[in-house]
Amino acid sequence: MNWDTYIKGFKTYLQFEKSLSSNSIEAYINDVQKFIQYLNSLNLKLSPLNIDLKHLQNFIKWINELGMSACTQARMISGIKAFYKYLLLENLISKNPTELLESPKIGRKLPDTLNVYEIDQIIGAIDLSKPEGERNKAILETLYGCGLRVSELINLKISNLFFNDNFIKIVGKGNKERLVPIGSIAVKQINIYIRQVRIHINIKKGNEDIVFLNRRGSKLSRNMIFIIVKNLAEKIGLKKNISPHTFRHSFATHLIEGGADLRAVQEMLGHESITTTEIYTHLDREFLRDTIIQFHPRA
Questions:
Q1: d(CA 59, CA 49)
Q2: Domain check: are 60 and 137 in the same one?
Q3: Which of 16, 49, 198, 215 is deepest in the core (most CB within 10 A)?
């Protein structure tokens, strides 16, 4: 069998057993395709079953020489490791050649955050006299108030709003569902948008249950949310390079700074691993460090 046959099986495995999104599946497949491209460049006609550690180490050296960042290299290696894990699970190989394969060391980059004043400034800059004003305000209050990913926001459904219980149901990565608390400010703004603005939109078939719509009655794109945030940041002269995800970072950071339990924040963000959530403790640690320097007699 050639690579295409194995990749087809790998794609099915990612789709049905791992329940990954189409974007994630495409990224994994592209990583394996890059390895095939490397083999072809050397005219190596090898089956996936005949690959050994040396081939993979030389591949890493090759992509490094192409100038790919450590982060891109690590992601690519992760995709290839997932592919060989699949082959092992299917008993197509008896030994995993990626087992001793090391990824480049990556320094964890701390995410940019906004303080409460900056968030108030951005939301306050929304022109509520325009038809999309109330919608955009509801979008930002929801991003910050619930710590949602952009994909979760644009797919939010009216049937998943449980305002009487102050919760919303989110379908996150891998189609995993979680309940996220929602505060009174976000609830109020979403209700204003739904009752005063959305009700007048001619909704396209298939979008009836989607909360946030464009003027044509269709679901908003990810790109549109980025444009809304960028335009508002420019309007107030904000020097930070922000995106919709910055509101998610700020949500998590402000909760932890306020003393929230890390496990609770992990649950709200929909992180599979607690180590992903731990990145948001960085500002809290800085505060503790500064406090010790300022007040400890031997600092």
A1: 16
A2: no
A3: 198
Residues 79, 186 within the same domain: no
Q: What 3-state DSSP class applies to 89?
A: helix
8: in domain: yes
Same domain membership, residue 174 and residue 82: no
Question: Of these residues, 135, 149, 249, 254, which one is catalytic?
Answer: 149
Which domain range does residue 76 map to?
3-89
Strand order in the sheet with 167-171: 161-162, 167-171, 177-181
Annotated catalytic residue within 173, 178, 204, 219: 173
- Give pLDDT tens digits for 223-253: 999 999 999 999 999 988 888 989 988 888 8
Catalytic residue among 198, 248, 249, 254: 248
| Cβ atoms of 253 and 124 closer than 8 Å | no
Q: Can 282 be counted among the known catalytic residues?
A: no
CATH number at residue 169: 1.10.443.10
Verify whether residue 149 is a known catalytic residue. yes
Q: Active-site residue 263, yes or no?
A: no
Q: Which amino acid is at 255?
A: L
Annotated catalytic residue 248: yes
Whether 296 is a known active-site residue: answer no
pTM (2 d.p.): 0.60
Q: Which residue has the tokens 């329940």?
A: 19
Q: Residue 72 maps to which CATH number?
A: 1.10.150.130
Any catalytic annotation for residue 38?
A: no
Stretch 132-151: mean pLDDT: 94
